[in-house]
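FAQ
Q: What does a multi-component entry look like?
A: The components come first, one per line:
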Amino acid sequence: MTYSPHTDADRARMLDAVGVASVEDLFADIPAGVRAGAWAVPPPLVEQEVRAELARLAGRNRIAEVSFLGAGAYRHLIPSVVGEVIGRSEFATSYTPYQPEVSQGTLQSIYEFQSLICELTDMEVATASHYDGATATAEAAMMACRLTRRSRVAVSAGVNPDYRRVLETYCAGPGIEVVIVPVDLAEGGDGTTDPAAVADLQEVACLIAAQPNYYGQLEPMRELADATHATGAQFVAVVEPTSLALLEAPGTYGADIVAAEGQPLGIPINFGGPYVGLMAARMASVRQMPGRLVGATRDAQGRKGYVLTLQAREQHIRREKAASNICTNQALMALAATAYLIAVGPNGLREVAELSMTQARQLAGALESAGLAERRFGGASRPAVARRRPPAARRHATLAERGIVAGHVLERAEPMLRDTLLLAATELTTDDDIACLVAALEETR
Amino acid sequence: MSVAEAPRSNASGRGAAFSGPNAGDDLTVVEPLIFERSRAERRAVRFPRPSERARAAGDGQPQLPASVLRAQAPRLPEVSELDMLRHFNRLARLNMAIDLNFYPLGSCTMKYNPKVNEWAARLPGLAESHPLDPQALNQGSLELMWLLAELLKEISGFEAVSLQPAAGAHGELTGMLMTRAYHGAHGEGEQRMKVLVPDSAHGTNPATATMVGYQTVTIRSNERGGIDLEALRSALGPDVAALMITNPSTLGIFEDQIDQVLAAVREAGAIAYMDGANLNAILGRFRPGQVGFDIMHFNLHKTFSTPHGGGGPGAGPVGVSERMEPFLPAPMPVLIDGDAAEVRANAWAGRSTAGARFALNDARPQSIGKVRSLYGNFGMFVRAYTYIRSNGDAGLRTISEDAVLAANYLRVKLHDVYDLPYDRLSKHEVVFSGRRQKREHGVTTLDIAKAILDHGIHPPTIYFPLIVEEALMVEPTETESLETLDHFVDVMREIAELAASDPAAMKRAPVTTPVGRLDETAAARRPDLRYVFPDEGDVPDAPSMAPAREAPTT
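Then the predicted structure of the entire assembly, as tokens:
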């Protein structure tokens, strides 16, 4: 089926107006030697048929009945009202707000998004959005290079390995060197970044560290920020947004740039996307920020309104001198995050953070007291890291066959973490889920 | 209704199309910020309390140390669910959107976004699928990605497709990083550092080249709006990494010397990159991978109708030739058990593919790496797959035929009242110039765009491409009826008449929108980028920055 409204009579009238005999004539400017031949695209389907096809594919997935998987993408409650907001056609089917007079809905909601992210992070300016947490982190590193005129960046090994891979890819182009600052992953280590190691860094533009880090550990962010600043570099904090209901805000401990994955804020897991990258910084650095910004202003009658602003940083104005090439970002996902933060409010966000942590502690406590696993690292954290009796990877696979996903197997990416699983709990993790995992592990012991 | 006759809206500026509940006493505010509606302890969503069992079981576990705790809770708004919903519904009504208005924004392909695509994207079996689940649980998601890549290969004529990039510009970045990797692998990484970009290119092209460390060289267009072959040939050499070319161009013109362009690029040892933003014009007519292009990005949110969302999410898969395949981002969905032709045949016929097994292949030693976390904007893949399967071979061809027909129809209906610097056969869009109105009546293209708003139509892209003075770039798409196109023609002719008869009225437009023309210079001079709480002290200023040109583009 097609969505073309034209009847044959319409087409005939239009062809006549254009002054050509057939639609073929409209493509006469394609040189004969390069015209497409036959292709093997399947025939059209009507709605009933295409629904059956998509239902077939959805049916080939198995959604885990019980899951402790996080590792960068988390299951949280998405309030129904959030779906209602982003489902509105006026938000979903509009373009980037280039004509502000007819885009105030999008523009004001982005301004509110920027305000919420500033408040959550205690920063002075936040962008309209980035593709995801990983690309926001990579863009933050490149921004730090512009600010410091240095071409080497340091990243803690506690930053999500996926983000580090994206960072390496982005840096390869302009030849920016990436230095890894190790995390103590050894037996008995605390799984955090050593501020003393930062002091030795030479001529780096920034240090990137995550709070909590990939292993669920709390980093000494204030010490890392101080040590980074002592080298003349920018401190880039990668944060988990729901944790900011409880944890000290990056702006308070001295972060210069904040990057984050906004998926936990009302965005479905969706097999990895679309998500939303968050970025915030100091006002003094705004000229070097990548991405769109919305600002408030007035019209001739004094009415308040919102516009895209400081566009002299952007590709459509500056072309090869732009701060970034980003154009389309993740606006509708930023709207989801905005609606989420407003729906849950400060008390709801705190409840999410506290309940997630309570369930993580219950999970760790239940596994330890049953003798099924021990925590690999000390300290309070979310997600929990548990080391289990070997071989963890095989038991992980056995449980998956029963529809139980016992977190993420770490040894594939980090050989030092043999027999270690990264388990996450959120407010959706129930007591029964934990009991179910414990029982299943008892059976496979 | 002409602009001059448009009724004055009420004091807060809402015209008929935007009438909503009164915002309050301040008539200069259309809708207050949600922060201003906040009342302490008002709630929308609540969460369960932790059980006694949960507390007891975690008792021995470490607590958060006081040193990491936040001193003051973030001041998020505290509102009821209804307050919040009304706030967003009122904001929604301030937007134009495809589902409400004709939206001929050139280069953006604002076509209808079919609703069955949304149904598909919300299927729990897909939307709740976790990207790091064991692959045995994810076969449906992986198969969908594999099938979509197969379809994009077939449509574009390329050997391989990566779905990972999140938007068109991200696809460009991927393509340029691959270009660097390719030349590096051939010992020419240091030598080939220039990227040729026509003067009609999207701004993302030169910005992307810079992001990967390349130097941009601009190639002028010829008097017919195509790339100047002489200029291209003299710029090509052993120091050139790639040509980035948009075809059909941003003038809506098919590059009719494309065979010679490709031959010259190939001879110089450079990579031929095609910006696929305008693929909507050539489905089934031109397959770039088949004729010698090395790389192209798709915009699933343009050609394949995923909703643009007020600025994303998009998806920018890249298709590549055989020689570029090793450099594609990792991981790639692959078929590990089953015959590809048989799997395709079964999927196309709606038969079970249960015997086929898919996996993600991360073992790609020459890959540029990852450009995004996980695997890309999967929700957009679901929509694009649904769209391509709905349309099928015949439908995809019809899309381009009708899109091109509509653009040409507008061309011939309007080229007597608006200058058309390149009056040739159009593809998906046509670029007029408002220079006559500017010269004769002092009415700019910006004025014309603002006058269009008063007719309930979203204006075309303006001031782009840069090579057209006072450009008005119109892309009607294939989903607008003849009546809508005719109405647009009437509106544009009426506005041309108004420009002549009452230029001052044009300067006042728009008058029916929630706000009038906004002071963008003031916005840039003293940026107000977030809500300031009443008890906050001085807010730091941004360092001074030259205000941007007022003209927006895509």
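Q: Is there any commentary attached?
A: Sometimes. For this entry: Confidence is low (pLDDT under 50) at residues 1-24, 547-554 of chain B.
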